[in-house]
Amino acid sequence: MRPLVLSLLLAVPLSAGTIDVRVQDAHGAAVKDAVVYAVPEGRALPLAKRTAVMDQKNRMFIPHVLVIQTGTSVRFPNSDDIRHHVYSFSPAKPFQLPLYKGTPASPVLFDKPGVVTLGCNIHDQMNAFIIVVDTPYFDRTGGDGHVALRDIEPGRYVVHVWYPDMRDEPRPGNVTISGSERADLSFVIHAHGHP
User: Fold this and answer.
1) Which of 85, 57, 162 has the alpha carbon at shortest distance from 116?
2) CB atoms within 10 A of CB 166
3) Which helix (H) or strand (E) segment is 2 a member of?
4) Hey, which of 5, 14, 34, 41 would disulfide with 163, CB 3.0 to 4.6 Å?
């Protein structure tokens, strides 16, 4: 038992940093649910072996934006009392879950990075996004447009931002973490229909 405990302790970085990111629109307003992810330079990362959930409630996907690491399986429970038909035609993961209630027996494995747009063949207003990234360092901004990526191991990182309504991806940020310091970045998103 003791060697297992030691190996778990050694897996935690001795000095991990934090990347603080603020995302705002062209008018300076906070952008909620922007996906922020930091990709380490010069090293490959193992695929995730995790499971995430994209629920369906009140004829909506919950959450509207889900960010996961490549290799994650996603369950699609239907918490409504009506049937849904979930699909994606996105190149990163085309799939269909024909009309169902409850939870399908098998989760869907997302094994390639990219943006996966979801819909329901029965309810046109239902849409959502799964953002699949090749890094474990990711999160979504809160209502204040901020997010903190924690436990960042020392090294160089390229930080990206994605948002459903953005016209173009903002220029990525470059950060070097050498210990337990904090790095601050900010991004401005230009959304469709806005200057």
Assistant:
1) 162
2) 19
3) helix 2-11
4) 34
Which two structure tokens, joined as six digits, stand for 22?
A: 């603020």
Q: Has residue 8 been placed in a domain?
A: no
Range in 15-19, 59-63, 127-131 with the lowest mean pLDDT = 15-19
- The pTM of the full predicted model, rounded to 2 decimals, is 0.87
Q: Are residues 191 and 113 in the same domain?
A: no
In a domain, 3, yes or no: no
Amino acid at 106: S
When mean pLDDT is compared across 32-36, 42-46, 57-61, the lowest value belongs to 42-46
CA–CA distance, 41 with 175 (Å, rounded to integer)? 10
Distance CA 72, CA 132 (A): 9
For residue 10, the SS3 value is: helix
Cis amide prior to 104 (ω within 30 degrees) = no
